[in-house]
Amino acid sequence: xxxxxxxxxxxxxxxxxxxxxxxxxxxxxxxxxxxxxxxxxxxxxxxxxxxxxxxxxxxxxxxxxxxxxxxxxxxxxxxxxxxxxxxxxxxxxxxxxxxxxxxxxxxxxxxxxxxxxxxxxxxxxxxxxxxxxxxxxxxxxxxxxxxxxxxxxxxxxxxxxxxxxxxx
Length: 168
Prior knowledge:
CATH topology: Dihydrofolate Reductase, subunit A
Order of helices and strands: EEHEHEEHEHEEEE
Mean pLDDT: 94
CATH class: Alpha Beta
């Protein structure tokens, strides 16, 4: 919880917590993209500048896009700009959920404070230069899981998790 707001992280990781390479996603999994859209539509999404720049069409529709950058000159169309994770959360709509969507630095800043982790585990190894923090599963209660086999629609076997941080 940050600024008394419930924080959700949504992320897809490979076997070694890899999340990206050269500012691109490592895979395109149909079911994962649908899950991402279903969970984040109508809500606040917070991302770093590089994550925003990796989006093929700019700001994601039907969401409040908040971009964290230290460059005060930047102003992206249909986005709210912030200088820190705390400022981004302050600018989020109070009546909507907050989803942290990347990248590596923003995930690292939010990980210890987040309340829920919507994790897609892709059962494959990938060449990567961006990683999600190591997940200590003893800190989490598993709320939901769903295994998805490799198929024509999904290039890699993967599993969806909804995890809730244990109260300390």
